[in-house]
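Board notes (copied after class):
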Amino acid sequence: MGRRYRGEMMLYPVADKELYLDPYISMLLRLNRELEKKSNWIVIGYSFNDPVIREIFLKKSSSKKRLILVHKRATDIFKEKLSAFKGKISLMDRQFGKVNTFRQINYQIIHELKSEPRFGANEEPLP
């Protein structure tokens, strides 16, 4: 482009360029729509390291939303990345995927869905 430019411009990071193409943009738009429609969100094994996806969850959170997070570091993930979540959160510090834990964790998820969430975004999690 040389030394001159003809107006305002914005440069996107090259590594993120693929996010603006299909199928990624379609998946992100669908995630956005589905989170808006559903009141209970169950997330298993995801650490919320992707800032785009994390921001979608945070922006769609509200007092009417509930997140059940199943991850071996669920409490740490909540404290480090999801403290701005506006709804209710149930944390399950469990690793999903081992043969002998599927049934236990599934029952615990069902129990969480039937009960009141243990804490909200501004409260400390129970041990």
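Comment from the instructor: Residues 24-37 form the longest helix (14 residues). Residues 19-120 form a domain with the Rossmann fold fold (CATH 3.40.50).
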